[in-house]
From TrEMBL:
<dbReference type="GO" id="GO:0046872">
    <property type="term" value="F:metal ion binding"/>
</dbReference>
<comment type="similarity">
    <text>Belongs to the iron/ascorbate-dependent oxidoreductase family.</text>
</comment>
<keyword id="KW-0479">Metal-binding</keyword>
<dbReference type="Pfam" id="PF03171">
    <property type="entry name" value="2OG-FeII_Oxy"/>
</dbReference>
<dbReference type="InterPro" id="IPR050295">
    <property type="entry name" value="Plant_2OG-oxidoreductases"/>
</dbReference>
<feature type="domain" description="Fe2OG dioxygenase">
    <location>
        <begin position="237"/>
        <end position="338"/>
    </location>
</feature>
<dbReference type="InterPro" id="IPR005123">
    <property type="entry name" value="Oxoglu/Fe-dep_dioxygenase_dom"/>
</dbReference>
<dbReference type="InterPro" id="IPR044861">
    <property type="entry name" value="IPNS-like_FE2OG_OXY"/>
</dbReference>
<dbReference type="Pfam" id="PF14226">
    <property type="entry name" value="DIOX_N"/>
</dbReference>
<keyword id="KW-0408">Iron</keyword>
<dbReference type="InterPro" id="IPR026992">
    <property type="entry name" value="DIOX_N"/>
</dbReference>
<dbReference type="GO" id="GO:0016491">
    <property type="term" value="F:oxidoreductase activity"/>
</dbReference>
<keyword id="KW-0560">Oxidoreductase</keyword>
<protein>
    <recommendedName>
        <fullName>Fe2OG dioxygenase domain-containing protein</fullName>
    </recommendedName>
</protein>
<dbReference type="InterPro" id="IPR027443">
    <property type="entry name" value="IPNS-like_sf"/>
</dbReference>
Length: 389
């Protein structure tokens, strides 16, 4: 197979990259397998272009985007807020103990937090925001020069993997890139417009890798394992980035920008490129809580891999994105993955401590990702069910 390297996953004859987002729905599971093994994501319309013409038409939003059962505003919790963690306080010996407890509680009870005082220079953030926004402003044909290719996995410009003709579609376009290590990059998908794109993403990736490493060390301290126990699993700090463009939608309450999912990754750092709310997380009672982004903060999500490594102490929480009736929204998520040769399983120190034994199987990371895709294509609800003991 062409173009498969250590950093990409092979499933059947298609190459799949991690951190994809495939909707949780069961419909179309059977036909999905046929397409998956044929190595094709089904072609669907570009949503930015669709929105441009449709929003000013008098027509109903196309049926494939209508999600009546899932988007009702009445099930969204008002007034709650996810925890805020201060990286400056975590690094300061005077306050680190207190802030560590705050971090631990956020990871255990919420699986999400906003990270402030992260020390990433404003200029680095402003540059990457500008270049990501500029990219989506390019004419459609110019963006398509970096489009996903048939059988080439999910990297590039396009939509999340579409596996059936009846599957509901998300109201969004995205560009997904393998970022680190450098040899994982596929230059075909890296925008050359705006010209500073690559440099801005490089600097941003280096800064977010540093922040992720700090957080992993702090989490190790909170879990009571040696400081490098988690960073070892993330050796080489593989990163990939998904930037999602959510066009406005006149019928915003009827569609979803991103279907409910958990992040099949270690740690995800989300940057709001535009100042528009849209991310919602699922609380234990099944209701959705809207995340109100703080200026300059990252929204951090605990991914499935951290849930497993922590033997279930930390939670990987389902989340989704809704869209705005008249504002575009752009988010950029930097995913931090384990090293491809890692075995993903509960840390032995924690299994001993918890008394109840291991709550998850230990599997090669590559096998974890394969089971992630197989679960989705089978229409099973969660790949994590297959991991639980
Ligand atoms: C993701 C994600 C949420 C958002 O890309 O995994 O959850 O608000 N994005 O765009
Ligand atoms: Ni996500």
């Amino acid at each position: 197979m062409k173009n498969v390297n250590y950093w990409r996953l092979a499933l059947g004859n298609r190459t799949l990259s991690s951190n994809t987002c495939i909707s949780e729905g069961r419909e179309g599971a059977r036909s999905s397998m046929a397409h998956a093994t044929a190595g094709q994501s089904l072609p669907v319309p570009n949503v930015q272009a669709l929105a441009q013409t449709w929003n000013s038409s008098g027509e109903q939003v196309p049926d494939r985007y209508v999600r009546t059962e899932e988007t009702g505003a009445d099930e969204v919790l008002a007034g709650g807020a996810i925890p805020v963690v201060d990286l400056g306080r975590l690094m300061d010996p005077q306050s680190s103990e207190e802030e560590l407890a705050n971090l631990g509680s956020a990871c255990q009870n919420w699986g999400f937090f906003q990270l402030i005082n992260h020390g990433v220079p404003e200029e680095v953030i402003e540059d990457v925001k500008r270049d990501l926004s500029e990219f989506f402003k390019l004419p459609l044909e110019a963006k398509k020069a970096f489009a996903q290719v048939p059988g080439g996995g999910l990297e590039g410009y396009g939509q999340s993997f579409v596996f059936s003709d009846t599957q509901k579609l998300d109201w969004a376009d995205m560009i997904y890139l393998m970022v680190s290590p450098r040899e994982s990059r596929d230059r075909r998908f890296w925008p050359t417009q705006p010209p500073s794109f690559g440099r801005s993403v490089d600097r941003y990736a280096a800064e977010t890798a540093r922040v992720a490493a700090c957080l992993l060390r702090c989490m190790a301290a909170d879990l009571g394992v040696p400081p490098d126990r988690l960073t070892e699993a993330f050796r080489g700090q593989p990163q990939s980035m998904r930037t999602t463009y959510y066009p406005p939608c006149r019928q915003a309450a009827d569609v979803l920008g991103l279907s409910p999912h958990t992040d099949a990754t270690g740690l995800a750092l989300l940057l709001h490129v535009t100042d528009v709310q849209g991310l919602q997380i699922r609380r234990d009672d099944g209701r959705w809580l809207a995340v109100d982004p703080m200026n300059g903060a990252f929204v951090v999500s605990v991914g499935d891999i951290l849930e497993i490594l922590s033997n279930g102490r930390y939670k990987s929480i389902a989340h989704r994105a809704v869209v705005h009736p008249d504002k575009e929204r752009i988010s950029a998520v930097m995913f931090h993955q384990p090293c491809p040769d890692t075995t993903v399983g509960p840390l032995p120190e924690l299994v001993g401590k918890d008394g109840g034994g291991a709550r998850y199987k230990s599997v090669a990371y590559m096998d974890f990702m394969k089971s992630f895709f197989v679960a989705k294509l089978d229409g099973r609800r969660s790949h994590m069910d297959a991991m639980r003991i």
